[in-house]
């Protein structure tokens, strides 16, 4: 949780319960409920998007199709990006993820790559090969 508390306002953390709360508020507003003061800021920041292929509702950043991911789904999202980029490092994953998701940060990606056994093993072998050049 330490990373989540140290981030700026541009990247918000969402627990699953807060994610559902925001989605429920947006659904009720779309159904015609009168807006309260807090609803104005939610509507300014987020909107619901329905995937035309699956019919599933997603919470997205207002004006974009960049999905917001709850913290409980963060590992699965970063893992799929890591596999899709063929064990890509932080920068390659960032290029892949930046247009798809709103609240996945470079810190999330750095931590994930630091603990990937395959990436750590290949980095160690690359370091050993580099050391052999200097002998």
Summarize the structure.
This protein is mainly α and 135 residues long. 58% of the residues lie in helices and 7% in strands. The chain has 7 helices and 2 strands; from the N terminus they run αααββαααα.
Salient structural properties:
elongated, two-stranded antiparallel sheet, 135 residues, 7 helices, 7% strand, mainly alpha, Endonuclease III, domain 1
Could you characterize the architecture of this molecule?
The chain has 135 residues and is mainly alpha-helical. It has one domain: Endonuclease III, domain 1 (Orthogonal Bundle), CATH 1.10.340. Helices cover 58% and strands 7% of the residues. It has seven helices and two strands. The chain has helices at residues 2-6, 16-30, 37-45, 71-84, 90-97, 106-115, 117-133; strands spanning 46-50, 57-61. Strands 1-2 form a two-stranded antiparallel sheet. It is elongated, with a radius of gyration of 19 Å.
**Strand arrangement in the largest pleated sheet:** 1-2
Task: Average the pLDDT over all residues and give the rounded result.
Answer: 85
Tell me the strand percentage band. 5-15%
Number of helices: 7
Rg over alpha carbons: 19 Å
First-residue to last-residue Cα separation: 44 Å
- Corresponding CATH architecture: Orthogonal Bundle
Q: How many separate domains make up the residues?
A: 1
What letter string, H or E per element, gives the SSE order?
HHHEEHHHH
The largest β sheet comes out as: 2 strands, antiparallel
Low-confidence stretches: none
Number of strands: 2
Which class in CATH terms?
A: Mainly Alpha
Oligomer: single chain
By secondary-structure content and strand pairing, the structural class works out as mainly alpha
Kindly identify the CATH topology: Endonuclease III, domain 1
Shape: elongated
Helical proportion, percent range: 55-70%
